[in-house]
Amino acid sequence: MGLLKKLRKYIGGKRLEWPLPYREGLTFDDITVRDPFVIKDGKGGYVMAGTIYHYNFNDSYGTVIYKSCDLKTWMGPFTVLEKKEQDVEYADFWAPEIHFAEGKYRLLVTLTPKGGKRGTYMFVCDEVDGIYKDAVRLTPEGLSCLDGTLAEQDGEYWCIYCKEYIECGDGEIRAVRLNPDLSGTQKESDVLLFRASDNVYSPARTRQKITDGPFCFFEDGKRKLLWSTRTADRKYVQLVARSENGRVDGKWIQEGAVYTADGGHGMIFDDYNGQRYLILHSPDARTIFTKKYERPLLIKLSSGKED
User: Fold this and answer.
1) Can you tell me the distance from the alpha carbon of 268 to that of 288, in angstroms, rounded to the nearest whole number?
2) For a pLDDT cut of 90, what percent of the chain falls above it?
3) Dihedral (Cα; 141, 145, 147, 152), 10-degree rounding
4) What would the mean pLDDT of 269-273 be, rounded to a whole number?
């Protein structure tokens, strides 16, 4: 690690206990997390996953979730994927998402296997809060990728993911079709959806044209995709794109930004009453000078637009 990275890690670092201590009555002000992802547990409650760092942007020790009955107070964390329990030595444990597909819960998480390239892996479990097992890599072995998410189309599932800018200069969002039994991907189906430089809100950073956190949703019958980038003025922003023909592998039109106050990597969900929310993390980076740390931010939506 270079001197500059070491300094950045020291300046931004906030060392956390691991395993994290269990607590109840937590609010979002109490939870330091990036990339929050919420799923209904089917029992009247909610589960939130997210990236938890032990020390800044390097060492995460696994994937944990928090539980809530009302989206206001939370309890946890509960471990669903433990680094030391894996057959392969992994680093990162970034951007966990939990989807229910084909009768099982599917945990997608970004991992870097020892000696290999970063990518999105999928684990399975019968319960949303159980221990997830049986890793399958969804992104190409030879490429550095991250932030995979699931999307359904015509009864088939796709993994939409980010190809890192370090591989291609201009970060990409791509999609690959899964096998019918979700045992892996059909590599010949891999397709480019768009690049970071396609952003119409503001130019991407010159040296780091990143694509982060794709998430597929529907608004007024139209297929849309949340994604994030850093702009030339170093803002981390939440953007949205729309599929012109409604297909995952179709042409994508950039619609602009939905959140620009230093936050992103969001997702959209409906509560049990049909109220729609956008959840993302903000601010994007931590420093000891500002005493600000990444927190989940819940935004109530109306007709797909911010109230």
Assistant:
1) 31
2) 77
3) -60
4) 97
Q: Give the pLDDT score at 260.
A: 96
Q: What is the pTM of this model?
A: 0.92
Domain contains 74: yes
Structural domain including 157 reads 3-21+32-306
pLDDT of res. 55: 52
- Is residue 27, in this structure, part of any structural domain at all? no
Hey, which residues does 238 pair with through a beta bridge?
A: 228, 259
pLDDT 10s digits, 155-183? 999 999 999 999 999 999 999 999 999 99
Within a domain: 41: yes
- Token couple for 251: 């042409």
Based on its alpha-carbon atoms, the radius of gyration of the chain, rounded to whole angstroms, reads 18
What CATH number does residue 227 fall under?
Answer: 2.115.10.20
Q: How many domains does the chain have?
A: 1
- Over residues 21-31, mean pLDDT: 95
In-domain check, residue 26: no
Q: What is the pLDDT of residues 179-213, one digit of tens each?
A: 999 999 999 999 999 999 999 999 887 778 999 99
